[in-house]
Amino acid sequence: MKDLRLIGMVHLHALPAAARFGGKASEVLRHALRDAEALVAGGVDAIMIENFGDVPFYPGRVPAHVVAHMTAIAGEIRRRVKVPIGINVLRNDGCSALAIAHAVGADFIRVNVLCGSRVTDQGIIQGIAHGLLRDRAMLNAEHIKIFADADVKHSAALAPRPLEEEIADTIERGLADAIIVSGSGTGKHTDVEKVKRAKSAAGKTPVFVGSGVTSETVADYLPYADGFIVGTALKRSGKADQPVDIKRVRQLVAAMR
Fold first, then answer.
1. pLDDT in tens, 208-246
2. Residue 137 burial (CB count, 10 A)
3. How far is CA 184 from CA 59, 150, 157, 181, 210, in A?
4. DSSP 8-state symbol, 156
5. pLDDT of the residue at 186
6. Helices (H), strands (E): how many in the chain?
């Protein structure tokens, strides 16, 4: 994971059966390929594929058709680009993300709530480490790394506790391979002090900033973060529902250097 400094998001449009599905699965794939290729051409180190358009999200396991469509899209992206790929199945279906990653040869997954419990707009979401890590062992897939959020965005703690304790449990008891810290929501600023605290608590485990990073702010995080997961700031006009803007990608890559 040392080379994964900048991970660009491929935000999938709504998949079939989702409330905002546009009626053509081929269009979802076309937009995903366009964004993936733009991110890679702009210089990202990896991409992460996420069913961003499927609001409102399932709190846990998603239906089989979601897994099928995400696998088909991820497989096509895997054939087109030569950078590491990650999978995130919203809201918290890490087991499906792992299955998709295993099927298409992806390199990592993101899990919003690996340990503990969080209050979200989907209700109370429970940690899934116990099942996910057993699935990974069963598949002999330890090469697929688990990126786990701490104090994940769009949520609140069911029982507040220090960030340092949450991170320690996520690494030592949840067996996360990397920690993600973010702001309050998609594209929202992540407090630099939070990143410093997270890195101090995580020790040798990599820490990624998961929201609010731009070409103007990235320098603030560079002394403390091991990497960045960026979506909104790389889109046209800085809006999450717009296509990836290759100029913005190149600007962020240049700022990181």
1. 999 999 999 999 999 999 999 999 999 999 998 999 999
2. 10
3. 18, 12, 12, 10, 10
4. E
5. 80
6. 8, 11
pTM of this prediction exceeds 0.90: yes
Q: How confident is the model at residue 93 (pLDDT cuts 50, 70, 90)?
A: very high
**What average pLDDT does this structure show over 47-72?**
97
- The Cα-based distances of 247 to 38, 175, 229 in angstroms read 9, 37, 17
Q: How far apart are CA 26 and CA 8, in angstroms?
A: 22
Give, in order, the Cα–Cα distances in Å from 130 to each of 42, 115, 127, 180, 207. 38, 9, 8, 19, 22
- The pLDDT of 29-38, averaged and rounded, is 98
Q: Is the separation of the CB atoms in 70 and 84 below 8 Å?
A: no
Helices (H), 14-106: 25-42, 64-80, 94-104
Residue that is written with structure tokens 């002090």 in the block: 193
What domains lie within the chain, and their CATH numbers?
6-256 (3.20.20.70)
Tokens read off for 79? 């054939």
The one-letter amino acid code at 160 reads: P
Q: Which two tokens stand for residue 184?
A: 């309050």
Element (H, E) at 197: helix 192-202
C-alpha span between 52 and 55 (Å, rounded): 7
Q: Is 211 exposed, middle or buried (0-12, 13-18, 19+ CB in 10 A)?
A: buried
In angstroms, the CA 180 to CA 90 distance is 15
pLDDT, tens only, 99-125: 999 999 999 999 999 999 999 999 999
